[in-house]
Design a protein that fits this description.
It is a single chain. By secondary structure, this protein is an alpha+beta fold. It has one domain. The strands form three sheets. The chain has an eight-stranded mixed β-sheet with strand order 6-5-4-3-2-1-8-7, sandwiched between helices. Strand 3 and strand 4 form a beta hairpin. Helix 1 packs across helix 2. The longest helix is centred in the middle third of the chain and has 25 residues. It is globular, with a radius of gyration of 21 Å. The two termini are about 20 Å apart.
């Protein structure tokens, strides 16, 4: 997988917006300033075509994490990926998550409209996760955004923040598995002409990987899992996060169960971003 380098592409546009304070509201200025402050030093992750670190991971992610402490792998992370709007149109997006101590703050940036990467903006709002579950509260999320905007614009902002925040939750969810690890991607060097123009260097990016299955008889991840349920026919088993009897969480890869037994069954699963 190649690094996405969205921040490098967006930086000149966002930096230019920073020097035009009169064209923005207070909330827009503050969110842009914080994004520009934390994004360059954040550890960067890139995702494949859909906004999931593990295939089929989106289903039930909030429920799986509801009773756990939420921790970022670094003090700040920037996740770059492809997001789909209400019209199913793809566009580049970035979710910046910063550990503030008791909370995790999530800032959102994206390329809104147009076919070229020239219309980047930081959404005028920030979403906060509480890192620890709170007794008696069903939600661990609060939002702060620009209430001076129209109702339609505010709904759009809330929806965008929720969508981007789920990407951060999926990173936390994936890294809570004992057989999931972080793999760095090769860093691309900057050519001389770009360096003379003052272009940002190419950043180091990471991806999330699942450890290969161990040899038969050495699979410690699945210890204590099972039961008497039988699956005599061939079928597809989607990937899922499983907790064994020792309390260890791990990602079980999707697989074909009992291939060629009881007739062939074909199913198509569509993963939506």
């Amino acid at each position: 997988m190649e690094p996405t380098n969205y921040l490098r592409r967006a930086w000149p546009i966002l930096e230019a917006q920073h020097f035009k304070p009169n064209d923005a509201t207070k909330a827009q200025r503050e969110c842009l300033q914080r994004f520009l402050r934390f994004a360059p030093k954040a550890q960067k992750f890139c995702l494949p075509g859909v906004s999931e670190f593990l295939p089929g991971q989106s289903e039930g992610v909030e429920d799986r994490l509801s009773s756990l402490d939420w921790h970022l792998p670094f003090s700040s992370v920037l996740i770059e990926y492809t997001w789909f709007d209400l019209d199913a149109q793809p566009f580049p997006a970035m979710a910046l998550a910063v550990d503030t101590g008791e909370d995790i703050a999530v800032y959102t940036a994206g390329h809104f409209g147009g076919e070229n990467l020239r219309e980047w903006m930081v959404i005028p709002g920030v979403l906060f996760f509480t890192k620890k579950p709170i007794l008696g509260q069903t939600t661990r999320v609060r939002m702060s955004y620009d209430h001076s905007l129209s109702d339609t614009h505010q709904r759009t902002i809330r929806g965008a923040m929720r969508d981007q925040a789920r990407v951060v939750l999926r990173l936390i969810d994936a890294l809570s598995c004992s057989n999931v690890f972080i793999e760095p991607l090769p860093v691309r060097p900057v050519n001389k002409s770009a360096a003379r123009r003052g272009a940002l260097p190419f950043a180091a990016y990471h991806v999330v990987m699942v450890e290969p299955r161990q040899a038969k008889g050495e699979d410690t991840f699945s210890e204590g899992i099972g039961g008497e349920h039988r699956s005599p026919r061939e079928h597809l088993r989607r990937g899922t996060i499983v907790t064994n009897r020792r309390g260890t969480r791990f990602w079980r890869q999707g697989t074909v169960v009992n291939p060629g037994v009881g007739g062939k069954i074909t199913k198509d699963y569509v993963v939506k971003g």
